[in-house]
Amino acid sequence: MAIIPQMSLFSWEDLADLGDLERLRLVLDYLPDEALMRTLEKKRYKGRNEYPVRAMWNTMLAGVVFEHTSIESLRRELSRNGQLRELCGLTVIVPPAYVYTRFLKKLRAHESKVEAIFETMVEQLSELLPDFGKALAIDGKAVDSFAKGKHKDEDPDGRRDTDADYGKKEYKGKHKDGTIWNKVIKWFGYKIHLIVDAAYELPVAYSVTKASVPDINAGHDMINELEKERPWLLGQAETLAGDRGYDDTKMLERLWDDHQTKPVIDIRDMWKDGEDTRQLMDIENVTHDYKGTVYCHCPMTGKEREMANGGFEKDRATLKKRCPAKQYGITCEGQAECPIAQGIRIPLKEDRRIFTPIDRASYTWAKAYAKRTAVERVNSRLDVSFGFEQHTTRGQKKMKMKTGLALCTMLAMALGHIQEGRPEKMRSLVS
C-alpha cells in the first residue's frame, strides 16, 4: 500500500485522491496477474528496463480505475500525483506516450493471458459467494468507435477504424393508452456481449464483436466457449435470462437439453396470420397465444378463462395446466362436461419456443426474467465508471482489450471488498 503523508501536508485535492488510491490498491492487491507479468518480463529479458513491466501494467490499471480516456490524460495525472507514481512502482520520470503505445501492443499480443485473469477471478468468486452463477443474464451493448464512420480508404493507418461497422437496434412497445411506440438506435462501432451473475451483478463471460453481429450469434459463440473452456459454469447455472434478441429455438433447446439450464428468454410474435390464439394439441376447447398463455373455453357458454399453472414435470418434460374453476373456486356451467376438468399436460416438444421449462405465463417466469436487468446495470457501470461513453479507442482488438481490462478491474475490486470483509461493497466502483 502507498505510504500516506501527514495530514498537515494535504490539499483538498489530495484528500479526494485517497479514495481513488484505495480503489487502485484493491485492484493491484487482488488481480491475479503474475502469469501475465512473468510472460512480459520474459519477453523483455535483457532489454532496456527504464520502465519496468509491472510499473507500466500498474499505471495502465490506474488509467482504468481513474477513468482516463486517453494515455495523455493518464500521463498528466502521473506527473502531478506522486502518491500514484509510488503506488504503481514508478521510480523515474513518467513514461513517454510511445512507451505506452508499445506496451499496449505487447498486451494485445497476449490477449489470452488477460482472458485467463478474468476467468481465474470468476472461479475465485464462485468459491467465495453462495449460489454464484446459478442465475445468469445475457445482453449485448452498443459501443461507438472513436472513428466517425467508414473511410473510403480501407488501409489501416492507426487513425481510421477498419474493423468497425454499422449496427442497428429497434425497440418497440405499447403506451398505456394502447398506442405503439418505436425507437431505432444506429451506431458505428462494436457490441460488447456479456453474461453476468444476476444476483451479484458481476460478469462471468464477455466478447466483443462488430456492431452488425446479431446478439443471438454472439450468444451461441459465448455458450460454445463456455462449453469448451468452463463447462462447470453452465453446469451450475439454473436459469439464463435474456431479451427477445436471444429468442431462438436452438438456444432454448441447447440450454435445457445439454445443460439443464432453464431459458428465461422473451419471445417475439412470429405468427403472421393475425390470430390471437390457436388451438392446442387438438383439444377442441383449449387455445393458447404466442406467449404460451393457455385458455380453456366453457363447453356450455363458450366463456374463455386462463388456465392455472401447475408447474413443470422434469421427468416427463411437460407443463401442467389446471382447471381454473377447480383451482380458484369459479362457477363454470360446463364443468361436468368439460374434457379437461382434471387438467392437461403440455409436452415441451409441442413448441420449444413457446413452451419452456419455466411456464411463460407464471409468476416464476416473470420473477426470473426481471433479473435480466442485472446485465443492464453492469453495462451502465462500463459507461459511467469505466468511460465507455467517452473513449478514444479504434479497432476491435483495442476495444476487446479495453473491455477485458475494465471487467478484470471490476472483478478485482469485488474480490478485494469480499476478502477484506466488505461484501456489501462488492459492486461499488466509486468508494
Helix and strand pattern? HHHHHHHEEEEHHEHEEEEEEEHEHHH
Classified by CATH, the class of the largest domain is: Alpha Beta
Determine the CATH superfamily of the largest domain: Ribonuclease H-like superfamily/Ribonuclease H
Q: What is the number of domains?
A: 3
Q: State the end-to-end distance.
A: 17 Å
What is the average per-residue confidence, as pLDDT, rounded to a whole number?
A: 90
State the total count of DSSP E strands: 13
Could you name the CATH topology of the largest domain? Answer: Nucleotidyltransferase, domain 5
Q: Tell me the major beta sheet.
A: 6 strands, mixed
Unreliable stretches:
1-18
| Structural class label | alpha+beta
The gyration radius over C-alpha positions equals 27 Å
Anisotropy-based shape: elongated
Strand content: 15-25%
Helix content: 40-55%
Q: Give the number of helices.
A: 14
Question: What's the CATH architecture of the largest domain?
Answer: 2-Layer Sandwich
Please describe what this structure looks like.
With 431 residues, the chain is α+β, with helices and mostly antiparallel strands. It has 14 helices and 13 strands. Strands 1, 2, 3, 4, 5 and 6 form a six-stranded mixed beta sheet that branches. Strands 7-8-9-10 form a four-stranded antiparallel beta sheet, with no helix packed on it. Helix 1 packs across helix 3, helix 3 packs across helix 5 and helix 7 packs parallel to helix 14. The radius of gyration is 27 Å and the shape is elongated. The N terminus is likely disordered.
